[in-house]
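Form P-L/3: holo structure prediction, ligand pyridoxal-5'-phosphate.
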Amino acid sequence: MNDIRTVHFGRPIIGDEERAAVMEVLKGPILVHGPRAEKFERDFAAWTGAPHAVSVSSCTAAMHLLYFSWGFGPGDEVIVPAQTHTATAHAVELVGAKPVFVDAERRTGNIDIGAIEAAITERTRAIAIVHFLGVPVDMDAINAIARPRGLKVVEDCALAIGTRYKGVHAGLLGDAGCFSFYPVKHMTTAEGGIVLTREAALAAKLNRQKAFGVDRHMGERKIPGMYDVTMLGYNYRMNEIEAALGIEQIKRLDWILEKRERNYQALLGALREMEEIVLFDEPPAGYVSSRYCLSMMLKEPFAQKRYEIVAEMNRRGVGTSVYYPRPVPNMTYYAEKYGYKPGAFPNAGWISDASIALPVGPHLDEEDMHYISTTIKQVLGAFK
Ligand SMILES: Cc1ncc(COP(=O)(O)O)c(C=O)c1O
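OUTPUT (holo model):
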């Protein structure tokens, strides 16, 4: 066995620049409603090429706010992938609408586009997709289903900073894209999110509804403290400390993505020929993955022993995760509410049951990638 090395699954990259930016905020009186959240929106919009960006408190808040803003409610349905984080479905539930789950395709883990039409009813209002592990969904195909039927298209881009489809950044391929800045994502604001959209009117409405539905923000008030409330809204703002962190993080994004690509390729090269595992297809030309992580699916009989294999890899210092631990419809809340049975989403279930997610983040280097691949080979060898 090699010397043990600690390889964390995810680590935010926080430097002196971030620390100084946060301290700068704390030296002043403005913690919310300040210039930094607006600068962060402008910078993220510029980096992605988005006409409009609305900062919020998380990706979950972003998606919830979007459905709320469109007036979705009881009786409405939204198509969502079964293989995703529960937030994608919760955002629909939170407005009283019903998430209608569609299985994953095995080659990429993305939503099975061929199964979407059968899930559409006269109550369907939107199709939400997730760029699974950062690999773009075929958005032309999604739009071809959604547009003729007048359905909205939402991109859950929680894993998709740097994801591009035919030259366009994720989040700009449907009606709106929702991003997460949770610590293990490509960049962080501690907690935080943003909505990208091409629609000025939608951005303006989200801006009001993320702040109680008041008709004017602090800077727009002629008499301090005086405002009207013209619509219902939440308190989903991003604060100035988070935005200050985010402004510095955006400056690192090109380097972060380069590093992820390099780490991913190193790991892919080492694992590609292993007969004990299955890997997702590499994205075709025109599809750029954000390389969130590298998930490998264990073949039988190894899949049966996944927990022991994970425990041994962790014991040898290799941090792992699972994306995602169960198809969302098989999580207790959804299974009890809608009566979904185990096995109802076989491809999503296979990914949940057989996969181990491996790190490729910018906190790791070539030697770490080598350590991960040799550890996998040794551990699987020991389970033969
Ligand atoms: C696909 C997906 N959507 C949404 C979320 C939720 O993001 P947030 O924690 O910013 O609300 C996550 C979190 O990991 C996610 O993986």
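COMMENT: The mean pLDDT is 97.
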